[in-house]
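Field log, afternoon session.

UNIT: design team B
ACTIVITY: writing a sequence onto a fixed backbone
BACKBONE:
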């Protein structure tokens, strides 16, 4: 037998004998204690509920966060949101019927409970804008012209504004057959304080 496997070459140290006697001398008690501990941990594990709200992820006691919370209504929603796609059946979005329907849908969504009204974006939103650099500096305006009346001239201007805006491919489909309404929502209903369902 090699010295490595021979117990005589590695005599037990006196300090190691006490833990050995405690553990192996009380096997049943230790087994029962760990079983009870496992049962208790299992009970509490079933009580866990996943909650990934923004508020749980940041230090609420920090002064910056407390200041943010006092102005929370003025800020954007927590990142939760819905995107509504409105598509045409035939043709493209450059017709008055489609644009009127899009405006009505955006208005109805705007007034739903729990919607963060500051962040709703559609073609009709005044903060959806186009920008252009000219010889004189910058020019900008709303994507839907302020004098929009459904005429061919304003529809042509809308097409030009969309090309300048940079939203084709994100808010407007590449084939001009649909647009998106972005609807940020709050985690909780601002009126009741209850989580939104």
């Amino acid at each position: 037998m090699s010295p490595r496997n021979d117990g005589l070459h590695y005599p037990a140290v006196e300090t190691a004998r006490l833990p050995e006697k405690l553990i192996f001398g009380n096997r049943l008690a230790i087994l029962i204690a760990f079983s009870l501990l496992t049962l208790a941990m299992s009970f509490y594990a079933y009580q866990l509920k996943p909650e990934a709200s923004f508020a749980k992820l940041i230090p609420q006691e920090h002064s910056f966060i407390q200041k943010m919370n006092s102005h929370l209504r003025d800020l954007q929603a927590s990142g939760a949101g819905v995107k509504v796609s409105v598509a045409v059946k035939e043709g493209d979005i450059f017709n008055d019927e489609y644009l009127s329907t899009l405006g009505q849908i955006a208005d109805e969504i705007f007034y739903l409970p729990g919607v963060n009204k500051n962040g709703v974006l559609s073609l009709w939103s005044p903060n959806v804008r186009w920008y252009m650099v000219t010889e004189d500096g910058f020019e900008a305006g709303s994507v839907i012209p302020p004098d929009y009346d459904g005429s061919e001239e304003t529809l042509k201007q809308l097409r030009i504004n969309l090309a300048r805006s940079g939203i084709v491919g994100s808010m407007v489909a590449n084939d001009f057959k649909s647009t998106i309404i972005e609807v940020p929502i709050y985690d909780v209903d601002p009126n009741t304080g209850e989580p939104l369902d």
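LOG NOTE: Helices lie at 14-25, 27-47, 63-70, 96-110, 152-165.
NEXT ACTIVITY: expression trials, pending approval
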